[in-house]
Amino acid sequence: MLDALLCAFHLHCAHPRVPKPRPAAPAASATACPEDFVGGRPPRVVNPKVAVSTYPLCLAGFATLFSGVTRTPVYSAEHLTAARIEAARGMVRVDTFHPEPRLPVDVRSELSDYRRSGYDRGHMAPNGDMGDAASQGDSFSLANMVPQNHANNAGLWSAIEEATRNTAVTDGEVYVVTGPLYQGADIAVLQDRVYVPTGIWKAVYDPVPNQAGAYVADNRPGWDYRRVSIDELTKLTGVDPFPALPAGVKAAAPDLPPPTRGRY
To answer: What global pTM score does this model have?
Structure first.
């Protein structure tokens, strides 16, 4: 039964020692931090297989839906403002990677899962978005991390994160939802526990022009990425990042700023 579930979730079908699925937590519990979501409504998991064994968490500065199957976030969501980004740019980064104490020990990821893996502990809600000590500390929770290729993390993905911050500064605010993508049958797994995404996505809603779209990039070196509509992203990931938006906004072609390669 579990093998069939993982196959349908585009995960390795025969991999051992996957934790027994738990029922999905009620979606309403994620609304304990409505300020992180467009219209106060958390992203909607439209593929029920992705919702298996999930845990909504409200952390300082962002919200996460954690998967006990992949031991990575399904998504991390943020509301970025110009004032928040200005404060974040004045912060000194202090790395405090840690397992998430609010998650059951048998499903959370651990520091040992990433040790000598060859992958970065890649933020979904980036530390560069965090404007105070509490949110910076929470951003280093492993509940906000995926195994990420270092060249991708330090290059293209950093540029996409900075382009998103620049949009918040220019227009005053944006809502952002970021998550991993798992495609294909042969998914790498760290320590038989933490699944390595094949790609990463970031959905952005800018209220000023009332436009939304998403960046999608493979989890590997290089500068190849694509921009897709929210409808396309939902079909690809099984997650609607902005259920409060009108259908026309979600169907429209994205108008997102390109990441600036020369800065990274």
So the answer is: 0.89
